[in-house]
Amino acid sequence: MKSVNKAAQRPASNTDVPLKQRNVKFDWSNTPLDWIPNEPYASYFINEINLILPAGEFWFCRLYNKALPLVTDPKLREDVRGFIKQEAMHARGHSSAIEEYLAARGIKTERNQRLMKWLFEVVLDDQPFGRKMPVWMEKRWLLLRLGLVATIEHMTCVLGMYALQNRKWDELNADEVLLDLIRWHGAEEVEHRCVAFDLYKHLGGDYLSRYYLAAVVVPMIIGLWVDGAAHIAGQDPRFASKKPAVYKPWVWVQWFKASRKQLLPNPLWLVAQQLPYFSPWYDPSKEGSTQLAQDYLKQSPAAMAASAIQAKMRAAA
C-alpha cells in the first residue's frame, strides 16, 4: 500500500517553467542557400528540417487537442496547452522558411512535403488510410501515437541542446536568421521536453510499448532526414553528378565528414543519445538544461522582437 501511495503522490507534470507562445517572425530575404558559408552539404542537411517539421508539428497539435479532455491533472493540462501553442508556432516558423526561403531560391520542396503529409495525414490519422477505427481501438490508437510523440520529443530535445551548444556555426559566420530559427526552436524543445512523456504516462502509457516504439521511430526519423536532405541537395549542380539518395554511401559519408567539422551531429552520437529513452527509469527532466534554453530565449532576436510587440499591444490596450 505504501508504494501505491507514493506513486499516487508523484506529480503528473515535471515541467518547471510556464510554456508560452512566442509569436516570432523571420525575414528570409538575405539568407543564402549556403547559410553555413562554403558548406553546402551541411546547409542542405539542416534545411531539410524545415521540410520535415511543419506537417508533423501541426499533427502534434491535432493529436494533443484530442487528448486534452482526458487530462485530469490541472498543471499537466496547462502544460499540454502551452505545448500545443509552441508547436503551432514552430510549424509556422518552418513553413515560412519553405515558401519564403527555400522555394524562393528555386528548391523544389513538393516531393518532401508530400511525403510528410502522407505520413501524418494518412498513416497516422485518426482514421489511418481512411479506415474508421473500431471504438474499442480509439484510445489505444491515441495512446500509441502519443508514445510516438514522446519518442520524437526526446530526440528534438537532444537536437535542441546540440543547436544551443554548437559554437562552430558562429565561428563560420552562419546566417543569423536561420541560426536563430534553429536555436529558438531548439530552446523551446528543451523547455517543454517533459510534456509529451508526462502526458503519455498520465494516460496509461507503459514501458514495453515505449521501448518498441522507440526502436521503430529512431531509425525512421534518421532515414526520413537523410532521404529528404539527399533530395534537396541533389537539385544543386555541385552535387548533381553524385545523384544523392538515402541508400547511397556518399550521403552518409558526407554526414560523417560534416560532423567531424562540428557542422552536424555525428550520426553515431545521435543514436547513442537515444539510449537513455530505452531505460525503464528514463526521466526527461534530467535531459537537457532549462536554464540554457531560457538564457537563449532571452537573447533570441525573433523572440525579443515578439516580446516587444506583445508589450506594445498590452500598453495600447
What would you note in describing this structure?
Helices cover 65% and strands 0% of the residues. It has 13 helices and no strands. It has one domain. The longest helix has 31 residues, at 135-165. By secondary structure, the chain is mainly alpha-helical. Helix 2 runs antiparallel to helix 3, helix 2 runs antiparallel to helix 5 and helix 5 crosses helix 7. The model is unreliable at 1-8 (pLDDT under 50).
In the predicted model, the low-confidence regions spanning at least 5 consecutive residues are 1-8
From the spread of the alpha carbons, the general shape counts as globular
| Total of DSSP H or I helical runs spanning 4+ residues | 13
**Portion in strands:** under 5%
- Rg on CA atoms, Å: 20 Å
* Mean pLDDT, all residues: 93
Spatial separation of the terminal alpha carbons: 54 Å
Report the helical percentage.
Answer: 55-70%
Content-based structural category: mainly alpha
Domains counted in the coordinates: how many? 1
